[in-house]
Structures are given as C-alpha cells and as structure tokens.
Amino acid sequence: QLHLQQSGPGLVKPSETLSLTCTVSGDSISSSPSFWGWLRQPPGKGLEWIGSTFNDGTTYYNPSLKSRLTISADTSKNELSLSLRSVTAADTAIYYCARNVVMGTAPPGYFDSWGHGTLVTVSS
Amino acid sequence: SYELTQPSSVSVSPGQTARITCSGDDLPTHYTSWYQLKPGQAPVLLIFSDTERASGIPERFSGSTSGTIVTLTISAAQAADEGDYYCQSSDRIEGYSHVIFGGGTRLTVL
After folding, report:
1. N- or C-end of chain A: fewer Cβ atoms within 10 A?
2. Do B90 and A107 touch (CB under 8 A)?
3. How far apart are CA B72 and CA B60, in angstroms?
4. Which residues of A touch B49 (CB under 8 A)?
C-alpha cells in the first residue's frame, strides 16, 4: 500500500527558504510511470497545485510560483523534495505531497494518493 | 488562465442525494477529477477521468458531465460525507497543461 510520509519544519521566517521532504513507501519513484507532486492549501482557501516531477528530472511548475521553486526526486532514497525560496506570509499553508498519475506523458492527470499534510507557517 | 466555479456550499439531509457542480469553459476538452478533504486527514481521490470511481470509493459517489458542467453526485448522503469537495482539471499556460482546482464546496449533511 502506498504511503507518503512528509517531514520538515512547521515554521519558516519571511524571506527564508521553505524545505519539505516526502518519503515514499509502497511504490518506487525510479520505476513508477507516475509523476510526483506538491500541492498546498492556505488557511481558509482552496487547493493549489505547486508542481510535479518525474524520475528523469522532468518538472512542471505552477507559473505563479516557478521563479521561487525547486522540486526534485531522489530515487536512491525514494524521496520527493520541495524548496520554495523567499517566502512571505502568503506562503503559509498546509503542504501536501501526492502521486500524480498522468494519462499521457505529462501533467495534469490526477492525484491518487496523498500525504497527510504539513502546516507551514511563515512568521518571524 | 481560466477558473473552475463551484458553489461554496451544499446542504442535504441524511439519505438524500447531494449534487456538487463544477463549471468551466474548457471542461468539455479536459478530464475532471474530484477530491474530498476533511480536517486533519489526507485528501481522498473520489473520481478521475470525469466518471471513473477511484479504488475503494463507494458506489454512492459518481461523476457525470454535461457540456461545460461536471457534477459529483453523492447518493444516500451520510454524516460521514461532510467535508470539502474540490474539482480539478487543467489549463494551458505557456504552451503546456497545468493543474487547476475549483474553489471548493463545503458539504453539510444534517
């Protein structure tokens, strides 16, 4: 059974970098035909896709976050990572990692298994 | 870019049928998925490819499409179905497709 375990700090200072990790068990990132994605939900607001990556390094980002964003997969550790630079209070949200099943060779597809989420607060 | 529009809330009595709509001009040409979110829990995929039920999802949950509107139908609604429901589809920006979500619908069963 697929399980996504998220880790990372729950508090980040403004202008610093938000970094989260998602450890995958029950599937192998290196051999999976799926992408692996990050999404978030700010308090009181809706879901927002952040970006998705494939095991060959191919990555698709939300255009609104692209300039501050790096998403990558470490196939040796079966881990997915998120790095969001120069954060502000607007980046405060619950962050989720998820398996991104695609019907072709690229997103959007759909997200069939999710982590439990990490609340990240941006505050000094 | 364009938006997916959902009602902010839907309320039904237990045992009734709840219908949650999602509208968008490009929905006829892109697949839609539906998710259920509850506080403190991992989001759950309910429906993908407009009408396909995800693994382990009860038959009470179904998806349908009609033109620019897709609908999630929950038959015989239960208190356990209360939560937030989001539709997801795609938009094309900078030459390739991106994931977009509707604003979400709060379902109340009482």
Report:
1. N
2. yes
3. 10
4. 103, 110
A38-71 confidence digits (pLDDT tens): 999 999 999 999 999 999 999 999 999 999 999 9
Q: Please state whether beta strands B9-12 and B18-23 pair in parallel, antiparallel, or not at all (unpaired).
A: unpaired
- Classify the C-alpha dihedral B19-B22-B28-B32 as positive or negative: negative
Q: What are B's interface residues with A at a Cβ cutoff of 8 A?
A: 30-31, 33, 35, 37, 40-45, 48-49, 54-55, 86, 88-90, 93-94, 96-104
Residues of chain B with C-beta less than 8 angstroms from the C-beta of A63: 93-94, 98
Average pLDDT over residues A85-105: 95
Give residue B76's identity as a one-letter amino acid code.
Answer: A
d(CA B55, CA A19): 31
